[in-house]
Design a protein that fits this description.
By secondary structure, the protein is an alpha/beta fold. The chain contains eight helices and 17 strands. The protein starts with 11 loop residues before the first strand and ends with a strand.
């Protein structure tokens, strides 16, 4: 489960210059507006409103139409989803504007890479926009082998594979990994050199270590909380430390590890404290790197992330 942080601030609607910048770089998936109790995101030609109060949804809907008219932004449909306090209350987005006869899928692009979006399969449509700069960084470092834990629809793997990497994708959801394979196909990337394992990450990592597998880049972007059939309960505050220690056993000497979480109790300082303990416990050394700030997200919104450059 991913939640927006309580540090989120009113950010307003993005300006036309930023909209043009996204278009120029081949990106049509980004945030359009952030306010205290809601936000608006673009996925291709569709728009998703996330709201914590009904009045916020109505305000964002009204402002969207006004803003779009003023900047010449065209969209096909609008979906809306309520942001609950508890994960069991999550529901898929609902169509509130557009043709109800069309299917609920679309395609979004990010720096010319394509990602399948489905508004009918669950609370999240298939691409976490707050990871955009981390995906760019994966393309920058161009690892030869990537381990993508909690892979979801494999967006990090697409970013690595377009630079020639082979990937191992682990997620407890077979449906998410199937959508990941579809994302490979959308980008004309064959999956012959890529593996997909539907299992609990915590069970897979020790098996990989026993086989002596090593990776140049490892993605650790776990859900805040999950409970799935056949998998034990996962709570990021309790399980992240052990997860990182196991992942460090699989990292090449000069490899990179991404730690990212939307948990409000694990902001950057808390992540750093945990990382330093895990590095000491595994006798590893690393420098820290943070990706560039997202221009469409206010400070404090979205996931907290730290890259480890091991040495």
């Amino acid at each position: 489960m991913r939640l927006e942080t309580t540090q989120e601030m009113n950010f307003g609607w993005i300006d036309p210059a930023l909209l043009r910048d996204f278009q120029a770089e081949g990106t049509d998936s980004h945030r359009l507006c952030t306010m205290e109790d809601g936000w608006v995101e673009r996925f291709g030609r569709d728009v998703l409103i996330s709201f914590k109060r009904v009045l916020t949804r109505e305000r964002l809907l009204t402002e969207l139409h006004s803003w779009a008219g003023s900047v010449g932004f065209q969209f096909r449909r609008i979906f809306a989803r309520f942001v609950p306090r508890k994960s069991e209350q999550r529901e898929p987005p609902r169509l509130i504007f557009g043709d109800p006869g069309e299917n609920l899928q679309t395609i979004a692009t990010e720096r010319h890479l394509k990602f399948g979006i489905d508004f009918g399969t669950g609370y999240s449509p298939g691409l976490f926009l707050d990871q955009r700069e981390n995906r760019r960084y994966i393309r920058h470092i161009a690892p030869r082998r990537l381990l993508n834990c909690f892979a979801y629809t494999c967006s990090f793997s697409i970013s690595a594979a377009c630079r020639g990497a082979t990937t191992l994708n682990i997620d407890v959801s077979k449906k998410s990994l199937a959508r990941g394979r579809e994302n490979f196909a959308l980008n004309n990337l064959p999956t012959i050199d890529h593996r997909f394992i539907a299992d609990d990450v915590r069970a897979v990592l020790p098996r990989l270590a026993r086989r002596g597998e090593k990776f140049e880049a490892i993605i650790l972007d776990p859900p805040t909380f999950s409970r799935s059939p056949g998998a034990k309960r996962f709570q990021v505050e309790e399980d992240f430390e052990k997860l990182l220690i196991d992942a460090l056993e699989l990292a090449e000497r000069d490899g990179h590890v991404l730690l990212s979480t939307s948990c409000s109790a694990l902001r950057e300082h808390a992540l750093e404290v945990m990382v330093r303990y895990c590095l000491k416990a595994t006798r590893r050394a690393a420098t820290f790197h943070r990706s560039s700030r997202l221009p469409d997200f206010p400070p404090g919104a979205g996931a907290s992330s730290i890259w480890l450059a091991l040495r």
